[in-house]
Amino acid sequence: MQLIHRAARGPGQLACAGLLAMTSLSAHAQIDTLKVMIGANPGGGFDQTGRGIAAAMQAAGAVRTTTFENKGGAGGAIGLAQFVNTEKGNPNAMIVTGAVMVGGIEMSKSPVSLRNATPIARLFADTLVIVVPAASKIQSMSDLMSQFKANPGSVSWGGGSRGSVDHIMVGLIAREAGVEAAKANYIPFAGGGEATAAILGNQVTVGVAGLSEFLPFVKDGKMRALAVSSSSATQGIKPLKEQGINVEIYNWRGVYGAPGITAEQQKALIDAVIKGTQTPQWKETLARNDWAPFVLTGAEFGTYVDSETRRLGGILRDLGLIK
To answer: How many domains does the chain have?
Structure first.
């Protein structure tokens, strides 16, 4: 949650504030072309986030045009490595990041981490959902857990990259079921579009992703939602905790800037992103996807990511998913 404090001002202070605002506008002119790296294939949460915030920044007048590049693999670590190597010093470049990328970096033991880039803004938190194809014989979370306990290998879980929050949630559910997490048949996909196709094509037993990715298919009857990972019901879907499975976990997403930019350039990019988040367009995007605002900027965001790296890495090690 972002709190904005406003103090009362007299006429002289307002005039001064107006002059400062004009100076700020001249110093931080509209970005002509914003380059956005999306570390996943089209169709998933990273893609939705990158295109959504860029469109909001354009609606706010902070950006004129945007170019996108999708580079999937290793939870975004491959895209991050390319971004860090090619965009150094570019003040008009961003990469979409989130808990999936943090876990992917830990899982792949990538030599490039988010410490090699510049923190800009955390944007929102997203609950996860567990779905099955509409024609599946699995009608409930209870049915799924019964089959999983009896024969873990018979349940294939389709989700994001290895080490992602999707993967972590499956590991936590396995632990609740008394199944060794490493024995869960987890099938990683490099993008939400691929995971959706696999579920609709009955190529996996169960799908795991951010609610926004699967909700349209749940609403039109092509998928059946079994549970969400939040503390309370979302879109009428019961949480795992209400179904006797003590697991609660969230995804979050945000954006980083290129390495080697100045503090002033970092602030200009933060300001442009925040302008985007204040538009009706972005607020409608949040509401449509059931994304909860979770804004944090600059160095504080960087500190948060460091803590998430320790937390998610610790969970992956505790589950035996990485050594």
So the answer is: 2
